[in-house]
Design brief:
By secondary structure, this protein is mainly α. The protein has a single domain (about 1-15, about 30-400), classed as Alpha/alpha barrel (Glycosyltransferase), CATH 1.50.10.20. It contains 17 helices and four strands. The chain has helices spanning about 1-5, 40-50, 55-65, 85-95, 100-125, 130-135, 140-150, 155-170, 210-220, 230-245, 260-265, 280-295, 300-315, 315-320, 330-345, 350-365, 380-390; strands at about 200-205, 245-250, 250-255, 255-260. A two-stranded antiparallel ribbon has the order 1-4. A hairpin with a 2-residue loop joins strand 2 and strand 3. Helix 4 (about 85-95) packs parallel to helix 7 and helix 5 (about 100-125) runs parallel beside helix 8 (about 155-170). The protein is globular and about 55 Å long. It starts with a helix and ends in a 13-residue tail after the last helix. The mean pLDDT is about 95.
């Protein structure tokens, strides 16, 4: 099935925008997106070439398509879009390649990372709350750190990012609606786009929340990449997750986010778990804590995280809340998370659950949605997850999700 889906992604699509269409919503920018476009599809073809299941030309063709326009290195750029996304795609899809443009791309990503670090330092000095995009995986420093972990694990810049994430866990001395109960990653952003800020919120998810930084800190520690305070920062995040873990009849769960009102009430408004997605649900949160347990090491925490994930997989009500097969929100993300968690697991419970999750992914892999080609939110991610499970490949494409 992975090959069948890949066969629908052999050629980049013809342009569906005009030559002078440079607006922020133009489809021309999708090419440099891991989520929706050519950068993500190139990773699929590159991994297949590395495992001997295809030639290199499809990967090169999609990479050429991804670099057809000037790469974005501004406020919207991050691991999933723009210069960092294309650099990450090139590093993952064609690790042997050394095109003349790679030095310029590395410089561009390093420059962006330093600018983001400087802005974060100024924000911390001003005792202000961070935006999610300052630190998250999609656009923030966690995502840039994930790329550096793949591209330059021994570099000084990655350690600067890790040091920033340690500081992110320190409380912010500010008299606002959230107050002193709020952790350092409490964001001033509204909990939902378009809604009033109302004191900001804390986000628990892997894509935009604190479990992304937790996973990066843990993965770096697992590779013996250490900065002062790293273990303590992991501990502070874990304690927060412990405090907000809820107990339900089918197992533990976490809210997707909490507001200032919920913080002061010491109780989430949600009455049960939402969909079991990688991006916001129990699977991503549990995988991050499993990685933390492995890195510290803390076998009890690792076991608790694995139990939470296993019990989530045994709940048909939660599983039925998934409505698409994508990596970000759907079956592929769940399957990939469980796949990598099972590889690291202390017990056999996740191995026992994995075949059922794989069957569900295969059942839904060709659903009508998503109608996109990309890795994170499209068909390429579904195909790559299936390919990984079928071949057992250990190529680290899932660094873009911080699950491996």
């Amino acid at each position: 099935m992975a090959s069948c889906i890949t066969d629908t992604l052999t050629q980049p699509p013809p342009p569906d925008f005009t030559a002078d269409d440079y607006g922020p919503r133009s489809n021309r920018w999708h090419a440099q997106s891991l989520s929706r476009g050519a950068a993500g599809v190139a990773i699929l073809h590159g991994v297949r070439a590395q495992t001997g299941h295809a030639g290199w030309e499809p990967a090169y063709e999609w990479l050429r398509h991804a670099t057809a326009d000037t790469l974005n290195n501004g406020s919207g750029a991050g691991l999933w879009f723009g210069a960092p996304a294309v650099t990450h795609a090139l590093t993952t899809a064609a690790p042997h390649a050394r095109p003349a443009s790679l030095d310029a791309l590395d410089y561009s990503v390093a420059d962006l990372t330093r600018r983001r670090l400087a802005a974060a330092e100024a924000r911390i000095a001003a005792c202000a709350r961070p935006t999610l995009s300052e630190f998250d995986l999609v656009r923030g420093l966690t995502g840039l750190g994930a790329h550096l972990l793949r591209r330059e694990p021994d570099g000084h810049l990655l350690r600067q990012v890790l040091t920033y994430l340690v500081r992110l866990t320190d409380p912010v001395d500010i008299d606002d609606e959230a107050g002193q109960l709020a952790p350092g990653w409490w964001s001033g952003d509204p909990p939902d786009p378009g809604s009033p800020a109302s004191g900001g919120h804390a986000n628990f998810g892997m894509a935009h929340g604190i479990t992304g930084p937790l996973a990066l800190l843990a993965l770096a520690m697992r590779h013996n990449i250490l900065v002062p305070g790293q273990a303590e920062a992991i501990g502070r995040i874990n304690t927060w997750l412990d405090d907000w873990r809820q107990t339900g009849p089918t197992g533990p769960w976490w809210p997707e986010r909490i507001t200032a009102a919920e913080l002061h009430a010491d109780k989430p408004a949600a009455r049960g778990p939402a969909r079991p997605s990688w991006c916001y649900g129990t699977p991503g949160i549990a995988r991050a804590q499993q990685l933390a347990g492995i890195a510290l090491p803390d076998p009890a925490r690792q076991q608790t995280a694995e139990d939470a994930l296993s019990r989530c997989l045994a709940d048909p009500v939660q599983l039925n809340r998934l409505v698409d097969p994508s990596l970000c929100h759907g079956w592929a993300g769940l399957a990939a998370t469980v796949w990598y968690a099972a590889v690291d697991a202390q017990t056999t419970s996740l191995h026992t659950r994995l075949p059922h999750v794989m069957r569900l992914l295969i059942q839904h892999a060709t659903d009508a949605t998503p109608a996109r080609s990309g890795l994170i939110a499209g068909h390429a991610g579904i195909a790559l997850t299936l390919h990984t499970m079928a071949t057992g490949t250990d190529i680290r494409w899932a660094t873009s999700l911080l699950i491996h």
